[in-house]
Structures are given as structure tokens and as C-alpha cells.
Amino acid sequence: NYSMKDSIVFIESINSQSRKEGMGFVYKVLEDSNYIVTNYHVVESSNSIYVYNLDNKKERAELVDFDSYTDIAILKIDNDLTLKEGIEALLLEEVPGVIGVEQVIE
Question: What beta strand segments (E) does 1-106 contain?
Fold first, then answer.
């Protein structure tokens, strides 16, 4: 049984002066890593980024790429959390004006 909530994650972004929180969704699950789409303003200027699954397990994330104009960021985490892909990432690479997620991770 799959539902969209299986691909939703909580994002925590920390820098020396603030802590931000947001949501994201799993775009791609590969053998050794997971890719997550979130809002760039959540992870902008952060020193540390963490991703939490619905079981509240956390994994440190790396900012792979972003587009500040469309407020989209791509995060990468090791494949240690149990996560599932969102529905073809809502076909983000086909939305005009939005960065091609597929291009970022390939």
C-alpha cells in the first residue's frame, strides 16, 4: 500500500543564527542515496540540513542544487532512511520555468 505521505519528509535547516523548518518530498530513491525536493528558502544559508522521515529518524542532507527564483532546492541523503519516491516527482522537469530535477541528479 503506497500513499503520497510515504514520500513526505520534514526538513530542518540550521545556521549560526537561526533554525528553519519545512517539508519536502522524495523525488528519487537510488541504491545508495535519496534525492529530495524542498523550498530553497528553507535551506538557504544553512550550515547543517537534516531530513526526518515519518518515523522521526533523521539523516544529514547535502544541498545538491537550487533555483532561488523558483524557490526549489534538491537535497541528497544517504539511503539509510526508509523512504519511498513521490509520484514521478509530480513531473517537475516538465513544468515551464522550473529546473529539471532529472538533469540535476543524472
Answer: 8-14, 19-29, 33-39, 48-52, 58-67, 72-78
Report the pLDDT value the prediction gives residue 86, as an integer from 0 to 100. Answer: 53
20 Cβ neighbours under 8 A, 6+ residues apart: 12, 13, 14, 41, 42, 43, 46
Angle value at C-alpha 47, between 44 and 53, nearest 5 degrees: 80
Retrieve residue 31's grid coordinates.
Answer: 541504491
DSSP state of 43: H
pTM summary value: 0.75
The average confidence (pLDDT) of the chain is 78
